[in-house]
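Lecture notes, continued. The same structure-token format from the folding unit now serves as the input rather than the output. Read the line below as a description of shape only.
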């Protein structure tokens, strides 16, 4: 198999103004574009233009988007189809996928998203055995992190900056019990890891602190999520923007020196709108969201010093981590991590009896499976951290020095 890139895009919409804007945008970025004001004209152009991607509006005269999509899907199976509409997704999305669409988007489509889906859906095949290629920016000898350029699985934006700590550059400590502290080794510059802990797609605002939640490069974007998660996250851009009260993000989320407000917003995005949602298609989703909420609470307290609010927020995190243990197929590494945070959070909120009960539960779990001798490295790491805080305690007030 060889890589086949078809950079021809056909757009169908009854709005001449919208067709002009979308066509100009794509043409300026190297795409060949044809337009049609209804499905009937669009089908005629399919015969001679043979696009790699068809972007089709649902409501059009003579032949609507549903019928056009069904006919294109039957006659031109190699063409990718993205349907879009100003109608609410809850009303039309299901029918769009039933007709054969690969993706549904809510109008209006922002320029970065349009370019992202064009790049994603105009490459129709990937060569067998092709090496994945990840871009890592040049870094200075004393820089304690590297910047990896990744691709968003949900909108196709191929400039997501992910900051990865260099293991040789710092010492990691979990002595406070709730978040890591990174101390640079001799010869390396200081770096506040919390500022860059969550990577945010500058286009659709998908956010995560797991580098595997972003594709290595634009040619390797097969989704690691269920179809439902992909669709929900792809259409939720406006919701995520509203969530943190912003209109224009540009690329400020990729700044290694971003402000505390931006950091808190990134945690909010990851907590509310990312990481597989809560539909269970990604192992450890409650554990991950619990980490976001905990660190968000930590940052709020570092600024406000409101102890009551802080304790209440930590109790909400406990509920999230508790949900993780209710999922039967939770992996052992995630289970170990979940127990660590449950016990640390209970200690931080003064619930020492409950913390002891959770520690007993973990010991009983290992006893049932025949001991912890076969634990993985990461699993043992969380257990070692647990033994340390159990001996030394958890000091939630240390976070006042965080920012």
């Amino acid at each position: 198999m060889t890589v086949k890139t078809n950079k021809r895009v056909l757009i169908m919409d009854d709005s001449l103004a919208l067709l002009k804007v979308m066509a100009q945008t794509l043409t300026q970025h190297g795409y060949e574009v044809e337009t049609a004001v209804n499905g009937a004209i669009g089908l005629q152009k399919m015969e001679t233009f043979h696009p790699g991607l068809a972007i089709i509006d649902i409501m059009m005269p003579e032949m609507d988007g549903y019928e056009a999509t069904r006919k294109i899907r039957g006659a031109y199976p190699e063409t990718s189809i993205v349907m879009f509409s100003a109608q609410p997704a809850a009303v039309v999305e299901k029918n769009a996928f039933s007709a054969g669409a690969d993706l549904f988007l809510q109008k209006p489509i922002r320029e970065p998203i349009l370019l992202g889906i064009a790049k994603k859906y105009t490459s129709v095949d990937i060569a067998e055995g092709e090496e994945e290629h990840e871009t890592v920016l040049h870094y200075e000898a004393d820089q304690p992190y590297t910047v990896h350029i990744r691709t968003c699985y949900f909108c196709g934006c191929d400039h997501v900056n992910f900051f990865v700590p260099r293991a040789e550059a710092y010492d990691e400590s979990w002595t406070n019990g709730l978040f890591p502290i990174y101390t640079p080794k001799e010869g390396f510059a200081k770096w506040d890891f919390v500022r860059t802990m969550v990577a945010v797609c500058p286009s659709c605002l998908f956010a995560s602190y797991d580098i595997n939640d972003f594709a290595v490069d634009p040619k390797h974007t097969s989704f690691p999520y269920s179809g439902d998660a992909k669709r929900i996250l792809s259409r939720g851009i406006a919701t995520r923007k509203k969530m943190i009260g912003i209109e224009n993000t540009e690329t400020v989320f990729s700044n290694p020196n971003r402000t505390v407000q931006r950091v808190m917003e990134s945690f909010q995005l990851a907590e509310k709108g990312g990481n597989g949602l809560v539909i269970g298609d990604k192992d450890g989703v409650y554990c991950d969201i619990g980490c976001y909420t905990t660190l968000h609470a930590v940052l709020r307290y570092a600024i406000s010093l409101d102890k009551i609010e802080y304790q209440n927020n930590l109790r909400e995190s406990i509920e999230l981590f508790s949900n993780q243990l209710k999922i039967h197929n939770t992996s052992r590494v995630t289970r170990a991590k979940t127990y660590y945070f449950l016990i640390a959070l209970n200690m931080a909120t003064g619930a020492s009896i409950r913390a002891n009960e959770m520690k007993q539960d973990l010991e009983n779990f290992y006893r049932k499976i025949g001991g912890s001798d076969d634990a993985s490295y990461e699993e043992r790491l969380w257990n070692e951290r647990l033994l340390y805080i159990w001996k030394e305690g958890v000091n939630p007030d240390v976070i006042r020095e965080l920012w």
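Point for the exam: The chain has three domains: 4-125, 133-282, 300-403.
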